N-acetyltransferase domain-containing protein
Amino acid sequence: MDVLIRPVQQGDFHVIKSVISKGLYEHYFSVYMNTAFWSIKVQSAMFILSGALSRVLQSDVACAFAIYISLQLLGLFYAKHLWRQHMDEDMKELATWKRFTDFYCNDSGGGFWVAMDTMTSAVVGSIGVKFRPDLKTLEIKRLSVSAKHRRSGIGGKLLMKLLDHCDKMKEEEESNLRGITLLVNVTQQDAIRVYRKHGFKLRKSHFVSCFGGLSYGTLCEYVRPL
Ligand SMILES: CC(C)(COP(=O)(O)OP(=O)(O)OC[C@H]1O[C@@H](n2cnc3c(N)ncnc32)[C@H](O)[C@@H]1OP(=O)(O)O)[C@@H](O)C(=O)NCCC(=O)NCCS
């Protein structure tokens, strides 16, 4: 599929919101499996609760196991609910077109691009960048490609467009830009592979609270010098 990477337009807004939110939403399962599933705190609570419940019900080991599996499924549903809340919080800059343009397009160094299928004119991916004057860095945000168009080079093309923009900005402004940064959850391995392929290196990683403090995940900061 041929794609054109072009600056975002108002007519793209609802499609990019949907592509971005679906791309984020799909991670709740892997976050749960990487965190709560391996959390001693969460698993011990489920274990103790299933033991207590099976005692109350005067049932056998098989029943205790069934209760434990049910609690695990409940945990997964609860994680889905909490993840949706987290996404609403995380996607604040995408609440309205005005907020979105204020955030990405109305300051120097910022920008937002979409990938458009040249045959159908459908928007299938997005990427944005925000200048961080405090750190003298550019921060990549919202790299996302719709699920059925992945693994055909679109994510890489979006990233290359953005890297071109960053290089131009460095040349034009003779600024003291230090580099390009981004934050990514360790569960987003597809994205991490694309970033590493384009020269990003892990700077640091830290634990973040997940699922209302029930568990912890790992957030990684990747950097590419300019
Ligand atoms: C991360 C993401 C944007 C990557 O998009 P993508 O379009 O699949 O990226 P690319 O196609 O450029 O590269 C992905 C893989 O496809 C491979 N690929 C590229 N062109 C290909 C082709 N023509 N045929 C087969 N494979 C191809 C690449 O080599 C790469 O493989 P690798 O991971 O084994 O190295 C996408 O997976 C996504 O939207 N994920 C959900 C949202 C997300 O996690 N965003 C990151 C936020 S920080």
